[in-house]
Design goal:
homodimer; Rossmann fold; 3 domains; 6-stranded parallel sheet; 13 helices; DNA-binding
DNA sequence: CTGAAAGCGCTTACAG
DNA sequence: CTGAAAGCGCTTACAG
């Protein structure tokens, strides 16, 4: 391996001069510096000590990385913007892949050159976050919540707006409202499911298990839910989706079946980014600013590192509810579901 | 700052023992190790030398970071998968923000702990890539091409498929084919524009400047192009978009105007990810596997680093052309544009 | 299981 | 503008 010593030998100077050249000491003769740097670069020299700054925060997955998902991409973009102020860089790592069984989390992060970490975790790996917090390593968990007072987190709170969304449908006259979510029982989706039930309850609409649809969070999952809803006897007149892709997939399927939104069915989506604007009609949605979550997490973490303080953050950022064009009054014939048992299925068959 | 010395003092052991504990030497008494690690973690100890591995590649922007764009997000996802095999991590950095004027690119990267770099650049910053290559630092430029034989790059070659796409429209009977692209003169878009012209030329269709539309790469830009096309006298019967968002925006606008695709107008999009599937009808598209580009770049770079070889890669990955539902024969009344001067504008007005 | 001492990589005050 | 020497942070063969 290349070192100051080997470079000094090749350049015919002392290690002192090599060190100075590498650190841009103005005292060094420019020609000497040139020669030294050329040799250093050619031999792949890497300082094993010293000047190398260490201003990385980690964006770390406990399990598989899912960086291509719109939510994660937006979060990461926010993290980069948030880390900018204190001039930190962002290192993407994966605990599952690289942590050695014999090292602590702190050791793992320091080995990677990480001074603080933003963690993205699945439900089953929550204990990892608690362990990192117990070690005292600077950390913020993204998009989860913890009861323990020493685990920092930032998450979006979609509960109030999910209730608002369902009540908006109720105010428009809807009574049979379907709920679509994905089959991974993460906190966000369970929150929204609870909110859906709470909104029904507050408005004395009985909860009906047959109106709840679980699918993989894909366009096909959303399409499936739409088709199932439209083929039901006394079908729902609205669907509230807790997942962006499901909502988009449902809209796409509606077009394919010549079902009009919102004339035939109202749809409310959930959006972490800008997907609601990519379809027609623009989706009335509960919206979460994923980039904002990442920004906030990174800014707080890096400020904490700069100030060398130790703080615990437990922050819930409320979502916001946007009304667009995908919601309206229920179709006249279906307002009272009990008196028009078969209209839904009939209309669906006509559409197909 | 915390060091082996200060920790040794606090723990009441020698620096030797501290070093061993930090490196998980099995010879250390577990209780001693516990005590040392606890102190190390508490005092925020960071090894300034030694064991810290340095297996980072950089994903570096020369200008602004655009990580939230679907193309970049997909690329990064591919990079992470590609870096996995050799167990590299990915550090996101920005040359514009952090490079000191007095340091070489190599020094910048080494200071950041980066052993090789994947560069994303704008047209105006191509010279930076050449400078990095001249220094001999391991690098692959993503999604650009270079004539210089010592600059490594990997890019998607969409030219052949862009010609194929336009010729597919011609084969369906289209003669007036509009071209929509964004206003940033990057290589990709200029390539596709050239291909559009070449396809017309090969088929003896005169190029018409008024059928070429430049807009910002937003949904609104695509919507504008669709509206402009539909309101033209002797309007085009098809549009080929060189940008994903423009195509999606056009489809959305068509729905809003009750214009049917492909019955009223055929649309071919360009897709770096999966956007073509998110709309109805699924867009016939020239497709580029952005994740694959990132994967390939990262895998080759990290393998090169592992093998300590120096290679130059100049790789063009062909795109692929997918026919879906957004293309069909031109509307009967508009097949020969010269005989139906006003049909397009009339139909548009009726739709509005 | 532990430590004193040697030694590597690096930087820097001092001398020229 | 340069180098010999001192010194820091760290690791490790050797001794106990």
């Amino acid at each position: 391996m290349s070192s100051v010593r080997s470079i000094a030998k090749l350049a015919g100077v002392s290690i002192t001069t090599v060190s100075r050249a590498l650190n841009n000491d103005p005292a060094v003769n420019p020609k000497t510096r040139e020669r030294v740097l050329a040799i250093a670069n050619r031999s792949g020299y890497v300082a094993s000590v010293g000047r190398r700054v260490n201003t990385n925060i980690g964006f770390t997955y406990t399990d598989e990385s899912t960086i291509a998902h719109p939510f994660d991409a937006a979060v990461l973009d926010g993290i980069m913007r948030g880390a900018d102020e204190q001039r930190y860089d962002v290192l993407l790592t994966n605990l599952k892949r690289d942590k050695r069984p014999d090292e602590s989390y702190t050791q793992f992060f320091l080995r990677k050159g990480i001074r603080g970490v933003i963690v993205r975790t699945m439900r089953e790996s929550r204990s990892i976050c608690e362990a990192i917090a117990d070690e005292g390593f600077p950390m913020i968990v993204l998009s989860e919540r913890f009861a323990s007072p020493n685990v920092s987190y930032i998450d979006g709170d979609s509960r109030a707006d999910s209730i608002r969304a369902v009540e908006y449908l109720i105010a428009l006259g809807h009574r049979r409202i379907a709920f679509g979510f994905h089959s991974i029982p993460d906190r966000d989706h369970m929150d929204r499911f609870a909110a859906y039930k709470e909104a029904l309850d507050k408005n004395s609409i009985p909860y009906d298990d047959s109106l709840v649809f679980r699918q993989r969070y894909t366009l096909a999952g959303g399409a499936t839910i739409l088709k199932m809803v439209m083929s039901m006897k006394s079908r729902p007149t609205a669907i509230f989706f807790a997942d962006p892709l499901l909502a988009v997939g449902a809209v796409k399927q509606a077009h394919a079946l010549h079902i009009s939104i919102p004339e035939d069915i109202s749809i409310i989506g959930f959006d972490d980014t800008d997907l609601r604007f990519g379809v027609h009609p623009t989706l009335t949605s509960v919206c979460q600013d994923a980039g904002g979550l990442g920004f906030e997490a990174a800014q707080r973490l890096t400020r904490m590192l700069t100030n060398r303080e130790k703080e615990i953050f437990q922050i819930s950022v409320p979502t916001f509810f946007e009304v667009h064009e995908s919601t309206g009054a229920p179709p006249a014939g279906l307002i009272d579901a009990t008196t028009s048992e078969d209209d839904g299925a009939a209309q669906f068959k006509a559409a197909v």
